[in-house]
Amino acid sequence: MNADPLVTILDGAMGSLLEQRGFALPPPGWSAHVVRDQPAAIQQIHAEYARAGATVHTACTFRTRQRNAGDDWRALTEVAVGAARAAVPAKHRVAGSVGPLEDCYRPDLSPEDSRAEHRELARALATCPVDILLCESFSNVPEALIAVEECAATGIETWVGFCAGPKADLLSVEAVRLGAIAAVKRGASAVFVNCTAATHVTPYVQALRDAGVRVGAYANAGDPRDGIGWGSAGGARRYAELARDWVRAGATLIGGCCGTDASHTAELHASMSVAGDASADLTG
Length: 284
Prior knowledge:
CATH superfamily: Homocysteine-binding-like domain
Helix content: 40-55%
Largest sheet: 8 strands, parallel
Radius of gyration: 17 Å
């Protein structure tokens, strides 16, 4: 293990975990409903991930933009960021989530002109403020690049995650590789594959190395029958075993997406050479 690169641990799923705990997440607001009605539940989940070893925490702003949350979207964005800040140690970093305008598994629904809405959310998050702007779960590469441009324009460190989906059939490995290279040219300082079935992640990580910046992965647990997440006994250990393949392939930013929970975070933390201070190791 001593020869492994230092890995920064990101947190895991929020929306799927809220659903498992009985919260209703109807569209189009999804998790924004819980931000509005029970922000303490959001804060509790952030605290669980912090105790498990995560040092980068994504605020629950994936659906707090106006088209999803309504006219009080700015206030909800502030509440979501505040819940993350209040739950984790001061040295940990909080990322603002900037997701696709429509369904992350339906790239065909991406609006032709998404710039104004991505700019609006990026600027709102910047004023909260957040430490990182995380453009995540994009299966439409052109929209992802617009989001990166608008986030990078705020001057806040910008990361981008490409989503090939639970079946890894939304984006090819080559499309992600080219998208990552283009995103770096537009200001991204780290590139990820996210919300892609954990069993399919390694080739994407290998391809992301061509982007020339830090590489990361936070995967979807995939089919519940795979026994990797969704409350499966032993799933966290299986996930960590797969994640070690991602680290060997070049990833140094590792977390979880749909179907994971704090047990996955704890297993990642226990099984890897972990960077101890996110504020120190993410500036290069």
